[in-house]
Amino acid sequence: MFDYFEDLRIGDFQGIGFWILWRRKKKLFLGIRLVVSVMFYGTVVWDPWLIVGQIVCLQCFYYLTLGVFMTIFVGTRVPRMSLVYFFDYATITTSTVTGCCVIASFLFSSLAGAGYMLYLIERAKKCLDFSATVYVIHLFICIVYGGWPSSMTWWVLHGTGIAVMALLGEYLCIRRELREIPITRYRSTPQQLHDSSTAAKWHLHSSSTTTTTSSTKFLVQ
Question: What is the pLDDT averaged over residues 120-130?
Answer without folding.
Answer: 91
